[in-house]
C-alpha cells in the first residue's frame, strides 16, 4: 500500500519569517531617513549593519546627496511577503516619508520590493527597488 504524499517541509519557520520581516522594515525606514547636511558616506555607514556588502556597493555607486536644505524622515510598514526561499525573502514595504524644508513639509508614500538574505543567522537587506504605483504594477 502506498503512503500518502507528505507536504513539502516549510521553507522558513515562523520565527525566521518574523525576523526577516523586521529586518526589511528596519532597513527600509533607515534607507528613507536622511538630512541634506549628512554626507552620503555617513548615511551608508548607518545602513551597513542592516545590508549586505553587495547592496552597500550598489548604494555607494548611486548619487547620494540631497539638494538643498531638506530632511527626510521615513516610517516603513511591511505589507506582504512576495517570494520566500530558504535563505531569502522579498517583501513589499510601504514607506511614509515626511519631507521637511525651510518653508514647510509634505508627506509622500512609496512602495518598495525589499529582499533580505540570511547569512550566519542574520537577516540583511540585499536588494531594494521602488514598485511603480498603479494597478499594472506587479513589481519585481
Describe this entry's structure for a reader.
By secondary structure, the protein is of the alpha+beta class. It has one domain (14-131): Nuclear Transport Factor 2, Chain: A (Roll). 25% of the residues lie in helices and 41% in strands. It contains three helices and five strands. It has a five-stranded antiparallel sheet with strand order 1-2-3-4-5. The protein is elongated.
Keywords:
140 residues, alpha+beta, Nuclear Transport Factor 2, Chain: A, 5-stranded antiparallel sheet, 5 strands, disordered C terminus
Write the layout of secondary structure elements.
Blueprint: H1 14-31, E1 34-35, H2 40-47, H3 53-61, E2 70-84, E3 88-101, E4 104-119, E5 122-131
Antiparallel strand pairs: 1-2, 2-3, 3-4, 4-5
Question: How is this structure best summarized?
Answer:
This protein is α+β, with helices and mostly antiparallel strands and 140 residues long. It is built from three helices and five strands, in the order H-E-H-H-E-E-E-E. The longest helix is centred in the N-terminal third of the chain and has 18 residues, at 14-31.
Amino acid at each position: 500500500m502506498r503512503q500518502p504524499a507528505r507536504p513539502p517541509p516549510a521553507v522558513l519557520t515562523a520565527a525566521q519569517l518574523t525576523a526577516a520581516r523586521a529586518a526589511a522594515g528596519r532597513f527600509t525606514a533607515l534607507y528613507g531617513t536622511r538630512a541634506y547636511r549628512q554626507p552620503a558616506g555617513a548615511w551608508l555607514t548607518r545602513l551597513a549593519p542592516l545590508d549586505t556588502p553587495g547592496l552597500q556597493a550598489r548604494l555607494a555607486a548611486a548619487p547620494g546627496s540631497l539638494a538643498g536644505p531638506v530632511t527626510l524622515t521615513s516610517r516603513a510598514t511591511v505589507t506582504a511577503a512576495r517570494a520566500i526561499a530558504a535563505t531569502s525573502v522579498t517583501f513589499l514595504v510601504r514607506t511614509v516619508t515626511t519631507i521637511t524644508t525651510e518653508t514647510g513639509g509634505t508627506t509622500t508614500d512609496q512602495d518598495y520590493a525589499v529582499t533580505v538574505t540570511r547569512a550566519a543567522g542574520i537577516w540583511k537587506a540585499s536588494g531594494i527597488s521602488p514598485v511603480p504605483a498603479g494597478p499594472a504594477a506587479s513589481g519585481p
